[in-house]
């Protein structure tokens, strides 16, 4: 998978061949085909791995992973940000100019599914407005912040975390 990501740093996905992937990975093409149907299957598998890491961070986040100065409670948001930060290189590639076109849609759809539990709260806060519109608006804003963060190495995880926490508090007040 990493060989494909490496090639995507300088090539569009549709211009990359399985032979190039095999060469970078230092394996035979037949070895790759044993595990993947094609390059799209490879990138989808890597995307699925990322989404599973996010899902697990949300479910199993432990306060021992946090910066003790920041917060001392269980917080799946911080866990998700840790996953995003640890996948920064991958995300820069798939969200960049050579990225996979369906990934932004898959990421937003993932966020919509994972935050569906907040629909009743959104309905209460934004009565009279279609919940789907509010959800899409917020998910798009969150996605935009994530895109900005992964492209700006100067922003720390704490700054992004604090932004989302303050934004959420203001939204709910």
TrEMBL record:
<dbReference type="InterPro" id="IPR009057">
    <property type="entry name" value="Homeodomain-like_sf"/>
</dbReference>
<dbReference type="Pfam" id="PF00440">
    <property type="entry name" value="TetR_N"/>
</dbReference>
<protein>
    <submittedName>
        <fullName>TetR/AcrR family transcriptional regulator</fullName>
    </submittedName>
</protein>
<dbReference type="InterPro" id="IPR050624">
    <property type="entry name" value="HTH-type_Tx_Regulator"/>
</dbReference>
<dbReference type="InterPro" id="IPR001647">
    <property type="entry name" value="HTH_TetR"/>
</dbReference>
<keyword id="KW-0238">DNA-binding</keyword>
<feature type="DNA-binding region" description="H-T-H motif">
    <location>
        <begin position="17"/>
        <end position="36"/>
    </location>
</feature>
<dbReference type="GO" id="GO:0003677">
    <property type="term" value="F:DNA binding"/>
</dbReference>
<feature type="domain" description="HTH tetR-type">
    <location>
        <begin position="1"/>
        <end position="54"/>
    </location>
</feature>
